Amino acid sequence: ANAQGNVDKWVKGACRFCGTGCGVYVGVKNGKAVAIKGNPDAKTNFGFLCVKGFLAYKVMYHPDRLKYPMIRQKNGNFEKVSWDKALDYVADKFKYLQNKYGKDAVAYYGSGQCTTEESYTFNKLWKGGFRSNMVEGNPRLCMASAVGGYVSTFGSDEPVGSYADIEKSKCIFLVGSNTSECHPIIFRRVMRHKLNNPDVKIIVCEPRKTNTAKIADLWLPVDPGTDLAVFHSMAREIIKNNWYNEDFVKNNARITDGKNTYDFKKYADFVDQFTPEKVEKLTRCPAEDIRKAAEWFANSGATYTMWTMGLNQRTRGVWANNLMHNLHLLTGNIAKPGADPFSLTGQPNACGGVRETGSLCHLLPGTKPVASDMWRSYVEKAWKIPEGTIDPKPGFHTIKMFDNLGGENNPDKPIKGMLTSTTNPAQSLPNLNKYLKGMKDSFLVVLDIFPTRTTQLADVVLPAAFIYEKGGVYGCSERRSQLTEKCVNPPGEAKPDVWIAAQLAKRMGLERLIPWNDDDSMAANEKAWTEYITVTKDTDHTLWGAKYDRLKKEPAGLQWPCPSIDHPGTYKRYVRGMDPMFNHEGFKKLFNKDIPSDEKIFFYMDKKGEGKANIFLRPYAGPAETPSAAYPFYLTTGRVIEQWHTGTMTMRVPELARAHPNAYVEIHPDDAKKYNITSGDMIKITSRRGTSILPAVIVENSMPGILFVPWFDQRISEMINFVCNDAVDKGSKEPEFKIAAVKIERISGP
Ligand code: SF4
């Protein structure tokens, strides 16, 4: 137990782990964080926390914390240096590389764990200062397909509704989400709702019988990557049985294949081929269960779908998102209480920090495309930089960026330097064998709080502050931005990213662009935030009303659109008469007309301003790899409740490390029998890309032929990402972490 009650003060903030965005209070005693408790007024968690959030303060005091800047010497060892020396060295090297190889020779790779102020600052420095769109972040690896889905279906990123819909729903559809372990507080809300309302149906669609699937009224088991066929089959059943909402479809949706539009009959004929029996053969999902799921989904009165990486980390991730949106549009289960499609974000600030600030290679603040003349000109004016400064050409997406990262001796690799912050690509990228050399050969600068697999490859390591040592805003899955106030000082000479970015800008002659050089991190944060909400004031994502003063007072932050200082924030988008969808002036600028007032629902999609969302006619397509004679198993990966991402923080909390000290491979008993494997045997897992060696756990969680490995283990031989597939979705460029064809070999007994 932590030191609840025995503290000098409690400081309001948000949890720094998953995208649920639980509100917390950090207990401070004698200048040290000694406890964390849930904020009872936070609308995300109502005072509850999972183990990671509860124990997060312990991360801050681990002896491994990076405390001083370090530069790698010729002999390969790091030497402690002053901040001036480290920053001068980085700035000089970046200038040299940009002068010699062009403005795009140095890339920024950020994280959904940076604060919004940090992502905004680095994005501005690169795009407005260096004139380079070589800006990416790890949300490309987790949420890009959800973004692609929202934008292609509705025309604007991020969910329609909020967590508050959970308690209003009559049917909860969880797809590709082990909510109980990855978003435990959301799962708690689902469970409570079910306990209070036994008639509420819970459907889980996913290859493994996870702890989430175990509580479901209906588990739809599917082979990895085949759920597109299940969604089409559900749509077929909904139409065949006349469970669809004809008026809703007529008024609010159009049928399209992405190029042409069609009448409804064309769609009905298209999905008709996906009979449940045929789909059962393809997916191993029982036909009767598909029928039952379709009936519950369509007729519940309010169906709420939540999904996460199981849907996104796929070569057909955007399509999977589109087809799931189809079911909501078809049945009118959208933009009303308890009914919406809702993506759960993996990281605390993937939405607020990276997507909303446009810190990806193709975006500008407000999630608007860099290729848009209008938005570039808009942002250039806001940033007070000459017209034509921002490059209209998108930079490289994450996988392409790392593929093009190499040293000065490698003419084929145009990116020669990189600055990474708060992420660990040397462990988290898929198909690691392909990308480690580029990181090693290039000029790599790493900002982090601990040594990681990535700092091992770095030329310069800059010690960063933890969120409770610097403060800042996180925007969680439900469009909610929450301010964390600084609680304590960072250890040694560790510094906030905003300060580091401002110091770098100063040394590169761009001080005017990043004028928040304050030593007081909250003062710098406020300046960055204020500029950010000004720049995005006229977008549908506006947080103009969420000034710092207000965020300090609001117990639970604010949800965008929040267009004015007296606006309460928006629980549900696209609903007329409930809350303004977005700033009217912004709409007028985009479409040169007033927001129509005669429609109940208005999706942003239609460039003509008609407000219709897309029901997509997408052909079925499977994953990039399916099992074969040489690689007879599917491998899928995921998280466990106690460990976060690559384990660099949670493995340093003794309680969490003890609970889940190492990775393992889950094998179905039938497969174990065939290969003469017992629990504890060491198993070599091999894909076309690499190998990993892990102890076996024989368990009936997945169907035969499907293996599961959690990916937090930092030991080289246990790192499963050597095995994972780096094939990407054509639209979102998100890799197919979730599906690889592999073979296994028992190499030793316990
Ligand atoms: Fe933190 Fe997520 Fe746990 Fe909430 S559910 S305490 S946000 S890790």
UniProtKB/TrEMBL annotation:
InterPro entries: Asp_de-COase-like_dom_sf, CT_Nitrate-R-NapA-like, MoPterin_dinucl-bd_dom, Mopterin_OxRdtase, Mopterin_OxRdtase_4Fe-4S_dom, Periplasm_NO3_reductase_lsu, Prok_molybdopt-oxidoreductase, TAT_signal. Its EC number is 1.9.6.1. Component of the periplasmic nitrate reductase NapAB complex composed of NapA and NapB. It comes from Flexistipes sinusarabici (strain ATCC 49648 / DSM 4947 / MAS 10). One of its GO terms (biological process) is nitrate assimilation. This is Periplasmic nitrate reductase. Its cofactor is [4Fe-4S] cluster; Mo-bis(molybdopterin guanine dinucleotide). PANTHER family: PERIPLASMIC NITRATE REDUCTASE, RESPIRATORY NITRATE REDUCTASE. Signal peptide: none annotated. It holds the Pfam family Molybdopterin. Substrate binds at residue 711. It catalyses: 2 Fe(II)-[cytochrome] + nitrate + 2 H(+) = 2 Fe(III)-[cytochrome] + nitrite + H2O. Residues 8-64 form the 4Fe-4S Mo/W bis-MGD-type domain. Binds 1 [4Fe-4S] cluster.
